[in-house]
Amino acid sequence: MKFSELGTKTLRNSPKDEESVNAKFLIQGGFINKLGAGIYTFLPLGLKVLNKVESIVREEMDVAGGTELLMPALHPAENWQITGRWDSFDALLKTKSNFGGEYAIGPTHEEIIYPLLSHFVSSYKDLPVSLYQIQTKFRDEKRAKSGLMRCREFRMKDLYSFHATGEDRDKYYEVMRKAYLKIFKRLGLNVIETKASGGTFSELSQEFQVIAESGEDTIYYCSKCKIGINKELRRELRSPTSGSLKSDFGACSGCKGELIEGHAVEVGNIFPLKKKFAEDFKLTFKDKSGKDTLVEAGCYGLGTSRVIGTIAEVCHDSKGIIWPRSIAPFSVHLLELDGKKAKIKAFTQKAYKRLLDAGVEVLYDERDVSAGEKFADADLIGIPFRAVISEKTGGKIELKERNSKKIKLIKVDELIKKLNGNIR
Ligand code: ATP
Ligand code: MG
């Protein structure tokens, strides 16, 4: 894609009204635009990143046996009244129809998927079922101030699995846990598997936390074993007679080493669901002996837009974001310097076409702006490879990785090979 076709611009300065690193860089780099507190447009560059994140999530959910569906974001109030969460869910956004009826705007989908499943599950033969969606969620967050980390409108993958027995659910929980680890690895995120209190509807939940100074959660973790425990849970487990938290948090359950305290961002959360929703919506099946039995279920959430904010928080330098290759908006940023010279223009256009023909995703900066501006934008946007063509590169391309200082002169063919393109 040509830079001028993006339809957006980078900003010369970072936005003054944003405190968080991710919001500053993502807005300045032209990935997102703020409409209001916790409400952002995904601009073309940002949408490319979001689509890549969601493709990885989708692929791994499919491998783990999930099947995709899409549920509505507009929920009749009645569904939420049945579970009691119409009044108890703090962040529930509500709206009234002009033609009668009240609605919740979906923050999560237990209230929808349980009654949905009751249309299709009646016998043990109909189980297990594993359904997921990737969707825009709405929550009336009080403190929506950290860019993509805590939004009022955000993207989430939520999967719900339904089983005839708790054992079957627990087995599937393990499949999902591994799928989550695979996803975060592909996303280039180092996650700590963290035990947390499950709140009202499950005994225990497990969070996937990324260590970051800006994280809202505090966890105790072992950096070697990549496991941790959320401070809030720790508090709940403390006996009234125990001493300070510091002396209380103990050793790593894996290597017995000392745990470190750190701030972290929750990027995913998985938990077995108690029987509550099955009881509320009477989601039962006939077991082998013909007895009506409540389904067992698990819930598996992953914040796809929060993942982008988290990566911006942990993968950047003073000049901008450094995207992992798997989710970068493009594989290579082609900078045309001295483009007024017909020879350079022709050579760059040819290189651009060859890259496209080879299936390489390339952002071609053909704008008539200074070299300094192009270099600054390349650093800010953070595409993993920068390829410069100028009078000085003498018929070759000067290649530099975003996170390295080394430069190298190479031929177009070599560049294509390096980027895993198909040379024709
Ligand atoms: P948190 O503890 O951060 O409020 P949560 O425990 O309420 O999140 P879940 O309901 O489990 O979150 O949602 C699943 C995932 O959705 C979370 O792990 C997180 O990645 C993401 N998420 C939740 N709330 C938001 C939000 N307001 N903005 C962006 N992402 C969110
Ligand atoms: Mg949480």
Task: Report on this structure.
This protein has 424 residues and is an alpha+beta fold. It has two domains: 3-317, Bira Bifunctional Protein, Domain 2 (BirA Bifunctional Protein, domain 2); 332-418, Anticodon-binding domain (Rossmann fold), CATH 3.40.50.800. It has helices at residues 21-28, 44-63, 77-83, 85-88, 110-117, 166-186, 231-237, 245-248, 276-280, 304-314, 342-357, 371-381, 412-418; strands spanning 32-36, 39-42, 67-68, 74-76, 93-96, 102-105, 129-138, 153-163, 192-197, 204-211, 217-222, 227-230, 260-273, 284-286, 292-294, 296-302, 316-317, 320-321, 332-336, 362-365, 385-389, 397-401, 407-410. The strands form six sheets. It has a five-stranded mixed barrel with strand order 9-10-13-11-12. Helix 1 packs across helix 10, helix 2 packs antiparallel against helix 6 (166-186) and helix 2 (44-63) crosses helix 10 (304-314). Mean pLDDT is 94; it is low at 237-247. The structure holds adenosine-5'-triphosphate and magnesium ion (MG). Adenosine-5'-triphosphate binds at residues 108, 139, 141, 150-151, 154, 156, 266-269, 301-303, 305-306.
Name some characteristics of this structure:
alpha+beta; 5-stranded mixed β-sheet; Rossmann fold; binds adenosine-5'-triphosphate; elongated; binds magnesium ion; 424 residues; BirA Bifunctional Protein, domain 2; 5-stranded mixed barrel
Secondary structure blueprint with pairings:
Layout: H1 21-28, E1 32-36, E2 39-42, H2 44-63, E3 67-68, E4 74-76, H3 77-83, H4 85-88, E5 93-96, E6 102-105, H5 110-117, E7 129-138, E8 153-163, H6 166-186, E9 192-197, E10 204-211, E11 217-222, E12 227-230, H7 231-237, H8 245-248, E13 260-273, H9 276-280, E14 284-286, E15 292-294, E16 296-302, H10 304-314, E17 316-317, E18 320-321, E19 332-336, H11 342-357, E20 362-365, H12 371-381, E21 385-389, E22 397-401, E23 407-410, H13 412-418
Parallel strand pairs: 3-7, 9-12, 19-20, 19-21
Antiparallel strand pairs: 1-2, 4-6, 5-6, 7-8, 8-16, 9-10, 10-13, 11-12, 11-13, 13-16, 14-15, 17-18, 21-22, 22-23
Helix pairs in contact: 1-10, 2-6, 2-10
Bound molecules: adenosine-5'-triphosphate and magnesium ion (MG).
The site of adenosine-5'-triphosphate (ATP) has 16 residues, from strand 8, strand 13, strand 16 and helix 10.
